[in-house]
Design brief:
The chain is mainly β. It has one helix at residues 116-121; strands spanning 3-6, 8-9, 12-13, 21-25, 31-35, 38-43, 57-62, 66-71, 74-79, 91-94, 107-110, 125-126, 137-141, 144-149, 152-157, 189-190. It is built from one helix and 16 strands. The radius of gyration is 19 Å and the shape is globular.
Length: 205
């Protein structure tokens, strides 16, 4: 299982199945999205010829229009947005089971109307949380931040929610199993600074 919304208790999960969002692998190692009472294969196992590679997956739900699933920047599935339940529950479980050793390097959750171009612009870049384009980012777990090790400025592991302007009740840290924490995953690069160029045409003789 890649991720799942849940409300776990000692007596089981209180979040009804029709209110769940779950991304998982099936027996063929295809990616399956369970949403409410429905399921759909959003990426075939043929899209993963090498399971050792990192992949970017995204579900973009635009209310009143459609919900689209993306694998490495390519739209692979479109479903009716009315069938996709809102994110509910008290937990977002990431990497439960891990039958085929799938790892998560970063988690982003938005509460904003994202265009496809905005969604895909930074799939391989870290989010600048001080930038105007981070508005609507309600949860951001890059699992790394700038810190020091032995007096050297570098990237250090963190479980902090790095989203700006955390709302009341938002999780500030993620609960995790320390035995499953990898510190050698590749960090995402910072997006290059954009420079606005203003040119005036000049007539030639």
């Amino acid at each position: 299982m890649v991720f799942e919304t849940a409300t776990p208790t000692v007596d089981g999960d209180l979040l009804a199945s029709e209110s769940k969002l779950r991304l998982r692998y099936d027996s063929l190692q295809s990616l399956v999205l369970d949403y409410g009472k429905k399921s759909i294969v959003v990426a075939s196992h043929e899209d993963f010829p090498d399971l050792r590679r990192w992949h970017h997956v995204a579900l973009n739900v635009v209310r009143g229009q459609a919900a689209s699933f993306y694998l490495d920047g390519q739209r692979t599935a479109v479903i009716a947005e009315r069938d996709v339940p809102p994110i509910e529950g008290t937990r977002l479980v990431v990497g439960k089971g891990n039958e085929i050793q799938a790892f998560a390097d970063e988690v982003r959750i938005w509460h904003a109307a994202l265009s496809e171009s905005r969604l895909l612009r930074n799939i391989y870049n870290a989010i600048d949380t001080a930038d105007v384009y981070s508005r609507g980012l309600v949860a951001y777990y890059p699992f790394e931040k700038t810190g020091e090790e032995d007096g050297v400025v570098t990237k250090v592991p963190t479980m902090e929610n790095m989203a700006p302007n955390l709302s009341a009740g938002a999780a500030k840290e993620i609960i995790f199993d320390k035995d499953n924490l990898l510190t050698h995953t590749p960090p995402l690069k910072n997006a290059p600074d954009e420079t606005r160029l203003i040119a005036s045409p000049v007539a030639s003789e």
